[in-house]
Amino acid sequence: MIVMRSLVSIVDDDESVRESLPDLLRELGFAALAFSSAEEFLASESVGQTRCLILDIVMPGMSGPDLQRELTLRRKHIPIVFISAHADETVRSRLLAQGAVACLFKPFSETALLEAINAALRVN
């Protein structure tokens, strides 16, 4: 029997996040891929397979909110959990109003991340 695990893609320019978060997600039972930029994610085969996107807000080039808008333009409805090192409640409120499932500020707990991912997967 083949068990399909939900693919969670991570887009973050911080190398430490790209190295640690996929390992944690795999331990929690998800399939996980990491990308260093929004452009790299958009060019990948993973866009259509991703069931939840963990997305940094501030990145060089295309920002997280820019990627969110681009996915909407492409009619790719992927639930998004934003993450950021910059705690800003105004930004969080705006992102949630624009359809994000959650917005977590680093450092966030494993529990908070798991709750956000599970909420995103319920949207799908």
List its traits.
five-stranded parallel β-sheet, 5 strands, 5 helices, alpha/beta, 124 residues
Helix-strand blueprint:
Elements: E1 7-11, H1 15-27, E2 31-35, H2 38-42, E3 50-56, H3 64-73, E4 80-84, H4 89-97, E5 102-105, H5 110-123
Parallel strand pairs: 1-2, 1-3, 3-4, 4-5
Tell me what the structure shows.
The protein has 124 residues and is α/β, with parallel strands linked by helices. 41% of the residues lie in helices and 21% in strands. The protein is built from 5 helices and 5 strands. A 5-stranded parallel sheet has the order 2-1-3-4-5, sandwiched between helices. The longest helix is centred in the C-terminal third of the chain and has 14 residues, at 110-123.
Assign a percent range to the helix content. 40-55%
Strand content range:
15-25%
The total of helices stands at: 5
Mean pLDDT: 93
Overall SS class: alpha/beta
Main β-sheet, in a few words? 5 strands, parallel
Major sheet: order of its strands? 2-1-3-4-5
**Overall spatial form:** globular
Q: Rg from C-alpha positions? A: 13 Å
* Element order: H for helix, E for strand: EHEHEHEHEH
How many distinct beta strands? Answer: 5
Which ranges are low-confidence, i.e. pLDDT below 50, for 5 or more consecutive residues? Answer: none
Distance between the termini: 23 Å
